[in-house]
Amino acid sequence: MQIQIRLRIPTGQSRVEIDDDKPLGDLVRLIQEKTQLTDFTLKYGYPLKNLDIGLDSLERPVKEFSLRGETIVVAPSESPQAVAVEQAAAKPKFTPKGIEPDETSLEWPERGGYIVLRVMPDDNSCMFTAFGGAMGLENPSQVLRQQVAEYILDHPQEYNSVILGEDPVRYTTRMKQMDTWGGAIELSILSDIYSIEISSIDVKSLRVDRFGEGKENRVIILYSGIHYDRIAFCMDLSYPVEVDVTKWATDDDTTLTKALELAERLKRLHYYTDTTDFVIKCEVCHWIGQGTKEAAQHERETGHSQFGEMTIT
């Protein structure tokens, strides 16, 4: 009898079909062909358990392993993967202030992995880096800023000075500078450019703002008041971010629910800045204001975009 088995691999999901009278070794070879991996471990069930692919088991028929309707997690163990992990470990890592690394992920046994917070550098380009990384772009901040600027100038009726709060040419000139913040306008534009829904979860309110509803796929980012991070899925916390899953079908509400669960944990840990009562100082001219709206106004008036949060005691 022919059965279908779902595969969870580092780059996403796949599917194989096999006659359940065939030996397990045939299934292993199918997985090798499908994933282009030669050395891996297989896990299945809930909670996850190892599928024995030793020599003795490879001759047994597939039906003896009760795999009908199962999802098999394919965990690479070959040396290139180990090299990738080592290279990733050598890269700078960014961890939320005051938050332990093990608090930025939630185990997801049903999917055979973890939903995780990928923390972006605090360099005024976090929104572009969060989205661009989810889309697999190189140099995302530079590329996306240029694309947003061109889109605005190509749509003068939609993005005029009333919507932007200033002359479009001046707005786009600032937006192309690497230290200018991006926000809702840019997210809406990027959703159109890449034809993808961007779901932005606000940590403090747990509100989900959807840009580009009705698209086929979505990415998920997390907004913590003055900073954006990326939500991803990984099969193992030791894997490099390059093999993260960062795009999902928009009808996959389970992923969004899991991301909200992680956001709720981060809210309890106060991983957000309350923009209603925090004070900002301009690092260029030492102007002091309150909240992101005043900071944005100051940036439009002066072109200054380097701000720091001041603590009131």
Automatic annotation (TrEMBL):
Catalyzed reactions: Thiol-dependent hydrolysis of ester, thioester, amide, peptide and isopeptide bonds formed by the C-terminal Gly of ubiquitin (a 76-residue protein attached to proteins as an intracellular targeting signal)
UniProt cross-references to InterPro entries, sorted A to Z: OTU1_Ubl (IPR048857), OTU_dom (IPR003323), Papain-like_cys_pep_sf (IPR038765), Znf-C2H2_OTU1-like_C (IPR057766)
Domain of life according to the entry: Eukaryota
Catalytic activity, EC: 3.4.19.12
Record keywords, A-Z: Cytoplasm, Hydrolase, Metal-binding, Protease, Thiol protease, Ubl conjugation pathway, Zinc, Zinc-finger
Domain OTU, first and last residues per copy: 115-234
Biological process according to GO: endoplasmic reticulum unfolded protein response; ERAD pathway; protein deubiquitination
Coarse class of the protein's main subcellular location: cytoplasm
GO cellular component terms attached to this protein's record: cytosol; nucleus
Tagged with keyword Protease: yes
Pfam families reported in the protein's UniProt record: OTU (PF02338), OTU1_UBXL (PF21403), zf-C2H2_OTU1_C (PF24560)
GO molecular function, one term: zinc ion binding
UniProt subcellular location: Cytoplasm
Biological function: Hydrolase that can remove conjugated ubiquitin from proteins and may therefore play an important regulatory role at the level of protein turnover by preventing degradation.
Protein name in the entry: Ubiquitin thioesterase OTU
Annotated source species: Schizothecium vesticola
